[in-house]
Amino acid sequence: MLKISDLVKEYPGGLRALDGISLTVSEPQVVAVIGSSGAGKSTLIRCINRLVEPTSGSVRLDGEELTTLSRRALRRARSHIGMIFQEYNLVERLTVMENVLSGRLGSVSLWQAFRRNYPSEDVSAAFELLDRVGLKGRHDDRADALSGGQRQRVGIARALMQKPKLLLVDEPTASLDPKTSRQIMRLIYELAHERGTPALVNIHDVALAQASADRVIALSDGTQVFDGTPEGLSPEVLNDIYGEEDWSATIRKVDDDDNGDENGDTEAPVEKSKPAPRDIVRNGAVAE
Amino acid sequence: MNTGAQSSGSYPDIWRRFSPAESVVRTLWLMLIVFTAIWSLRNLDITWEYFLDAHIQAGDLLTRMFPPDWGHTGQILDPLLETIHIATLGTIVSFAIAIPLAFLSARNTTPNWLTWFIGRFFLVSSRSINTIVWALVFVAIFGPGAMAGIWAIAFRSIGFMGKLIAEAIEEVDEGTIEAIEATGASRLKVLLIGVLPQVMPVIYGTTIYRWDINIRESTVLGFVGAGGIGIELYSSINLFRWPEVAVMLIAVLLVVIVSEFVSATARQKIT
User: Fold this and answer.
1) Is the pLDDT of residue B102 over 50?
2) What is the ipTM metric for this complex?
3) CATH 1.10.3720.10 for domain B77-269
């Protein structure tokens, strides 16, 4: 369970990127964080694992206060928080397997990391995850040989290798085409629920956020202006978040080509037996 | 200039790359360079008579070198091999020292400003001293021979390799580093898994390139007694045995061409 209270981040020069954010995520759910560029989405996510140091406030993960941890304790805490990035941030010159296994760096010795000598249960978990994200057989390919969508799948596998208590996801689809974006968001949704891991997802695409999240939070100028279900995002609310605009074309208009989604193309299929996240959300049957 | 006025009145028909002020500054710079060149020439006390008959002297030298003393080939193979060994061992020693030094000297991987300063200090010292001067120092320490040559080559190479690798480290993709930090990895693990793979091509490329340079540099180390073919070359020149000198120059040229080829091929293969 993640509990953020009164989180403030003021950058040198006076910019207040976060101005007293309070937020609780108490169940394994996908929380989409929306808001315009510069609203503080990235800062919020990075203040949780302290890639950005918060100025004040509290972040508790399963009861443990993260903001005051020593460097060593912070590293241990980070090893239980998975992170997924917009530009995937893979080590391009390493293989898919090395990238996925790097999710275990928090639990192996430097020498083991140097020899790439990861415990056998980590290796089998990595193979299983690669299969799950649709990259079976690609483990020896170099990361820079993959397409954008495939790289993001590696990024997801790397984060899940950490057996995270929480997933921080920063604009996972901003560098991907619309179709791949939807597949990636669905994969994140499914994995978060399969593994009982709450996920905080920064996302620009409002329609995609509505379609693939259990809950939506909106930031504007470092403050929270909305917290509710995807259905609650009315044009009035969107005006509050982004300013005046015609929203009729945006809301709830994610294309309905779900069934055709898995056909062909380089993007590997995700598991079909699971209902698409949007359906789960619509039925209100969020996995607990 | 006059065409612009005909076609369209709404656009300016005069364009100058430099403003009048810029032109003046550029002219001043040009004058300064000319002045410096003249001043340097006057100061150097060049004997112009020697300069004027240089082509005759050069031709004369060539005739004295020809035909090369091919019988001498057998005697230079060993020192030539020694030259290559000195270059290779010197490169290996500098590799081992330059990599940790490069991490100390890169702003994004050095622990604090003091370690950064120490790293930079060694890199700059290494580069500011010529290989021949290093060789003189190490001949004084180890006595004449290959050992002095190896260390001379190594010490000059450390600065070169360290500087280039440190610059590559400073330019690694920060996003990747952030991702590895987010896994809870320690500093050293971030260097090992996040930074090192990104700079490996530069490390390989620089090392091979430096090995190539070192082969050329080690051919003259013998002039100051630090081993290799330079000793033979120096004594043949002093004894005016120009046909022998010719053979050695040809041999060195061949070795350099081969090492250049090996180096270029190897660096091309690195991605």
Assistant:
1) yes
2) 0.73
3) yes
